[in-house]
Amino acid sequence: MRVRATVARCASYAAVGAVTIAAVWHAFGTRASAPLVAASAEPAARTAASRAATASVPASAAALPASLAGSRAPRLPVDARGRLAKQRAVRDFFDYFLLAEHDLDAAALDAQVARAIAAQLDGTDAQHDALDVWQRYRAYRAALGQQRERGGVGDGRDDPDALAALLDGRAALASRTLGDWCTAFFDEEWQQQRDRIERLRIVRDPALTDAQKRDRLAALDALRPAALRDADARLQRQRDALDAVARLERARGDTDTLRAQAAATLAPDVAARVVKLRDDDDAWRARYRDYAAERDRIDAQSLPREARDAQLAQWRQRAFANPAEAMRAAALDAGRDAAAAQ
Fold it and tell me: Can you give the pLDDT at residue 32?
């Protein structure tokens, strides 16, 4: 038996960019998620902001950020009573928007989600439910990030007991923040993770021979429900697609080469999305180069700091019609200024 192959199933996966994940999104309908052993790499979420009233957001802010451009949010499920149905699809809806959390500040992200909820559920009880659950989910992610900062979420990637304790802690946190929604959001994922922990426990047991490990792993396979096997197969397809897209992104060839390579390795809809995202990214880079040339001209005037910042802000708003792109440019400028000050 190749014990290493089993350990590899529990190994962590390197994070890929939001553009890569967004490209895979539409092929599978859900965000590609990593197993628990990789979950310690999950970035800390921004602190949840106060709920943004849909009507208070200017129309210009409703444009999708670059990481979601050209895509559509999943549908929110509603039950027979007109309330938000307790299904994993609700988390998928929220995770779709969280792909853009590095493009938007907390208030802007809340506003995007509020608008998307209103577009599907305006004036219904389900709309109120969705806004409430969104804030609960944000609270869960913020608390999880705080645990990581305090050292409450460690690695322990090869320690089954540490992983089991980590999973129990996350389940308790989810129960406190999400209430009975935690089952709909995480139950399938937790089952998969418990199964992987048990497999890791077998593989790491020094008292077992390779033959005994084979037998115990086979016994686990025989007991696994069909839903769990299907979920693993779906997750593997997601990982394969993410790996393929990441390789194409690293190659960074011209658009025609990318189109040919994507068509050869990916499903048609994913391949088309990858090419579109590359085109969008190239267009953004061109706009930013033009913007940066004028920014450097303003810098060369040696204006007082306030006057220089005001001119840059005005130029940034003219150069980038999409507020998310303007925010991205401002972040790049801030990083450039910080590096220059060192």
Answer: 44
Q: Tens of pLDDT along 64-108?
A: 777 787 678 899 999 999 999 999 999 999 999 998 888 888 999
How many domains would you assign to the chain? 1
Report pLDDT digits (tens) over 156-211: 567 899 999 999 999 999 999 999 999 999 998 898 899 999 999 999 999 999 99
User: Which residue range is the domain that position 332 belongs to?
Assistant: 278-341
**206 domain residue, yes or no:** no
Token output for 322 = 């999409």
- CA dist list (Å): 226 to 27, 96, 185, 229: 22, 27, 19, 5
323: in domain: yes
